[in-house]
Amino acid sequence: MKYSLSPIGAITSPYKEKFGIPRQPGLVTAARATLTLLPPYNLPETVRGLEGFSHVWLIFVFHGTQAQGWKPTVRPPRLGGNARLGVFATRSTFRPNPIGLTVAELCGIQVSGSNITLELAGADLLDGTPILDIKPYLPYADALPQARAGFAPDAPLAPQPVVFSAQASQQCAQKQAQWQSDIRVLIEQILSQDPRPSYQHGQVVDRVYAMRLYDFDLRWHYTAAGIEVLELADLQPDT
Ligand code: SAH
What we know:
The chain has about 240 residues and is mainly β. Helices cover about 10% and strands about 30% of the residues. It folds into 2 domains: about 10-140, YaeB-like (Elongation Factor Tu (Ef-tu), domain 3, Beta Barrel), CATH 2.40.30.70; about 160-235, no CATH class. The chain has 3 helices and 12 strands, in the order ββββββββαβααβββ. It has a 6-stranded antiparallel barrel. Strands 9-12-11-10 form a 4-stranded mixed sheet. Strands 4-5 form a two-stranded antiparallel ribbon. Strand 6 and strand 7 (about 115-120) form a beta hairpin. The termini are far apart. The structure holds S-adenosyl-L-homocysteine. S-adenosyl-L-homocysteine binds next to strand 6. This is tRNA (N6-threonylcarbamoyladenosine(37)-N6)-methyltransferase TrmO.
């Protein structure tokens, strides 16, 4: 049997590429995203009562990796990329149906004519992610603190301190004014997770890493003392 699903909304997020996105929601609380409802769902009625909830579940399409298909087993980055586990034992993006699940803080709902947007914090979603459904988060039913969690019993340790070069500090201040968002804290939270695969954690490699956030390339490197943010470089026009 086949089912046809169409998105009810789309995400605008600072994460413009996969590399560097936290591996679960809530790890980077400073990440602000907007969910815009698509026609014919962009009616004030569809979100009536949602303002009473502090958090929402979002069901989404892994649109950035969908074309790569799936395999019965995957190597979770959490396990250093060596051990293979069943796809259904992981939260891998490479699934038979490319459907993701995330929980986000609902910071506000804006209704302006047919433009209906949800302001979200803490989501782990790529810019442009299609949203299939929104459901209110119900702590009494959805929070199970005693549950066993296999190979991921706790949040990953935030391994390293993050420092900013003088140039990066100054650029953060400019970007914060431009985007009205606490970009310095966002960068600290993202990098303290160390986006590299876990087998590389703790290694000091002589190279500069980069990820796209908002309208800039964040560049950093690893030193014996931790992670140093080098610059927030404006994107070249052809990228
Ligand atoms: N919380 C989700 C996602 C877990 S996998 C779930 O459990 O289903 C986490 C990874 O999903 C992130 O590191 C990010 O790189 C990736 N991701 C986020 N949005 C995506 C998208 N639209 N397409 C493909 N990958 C995405």
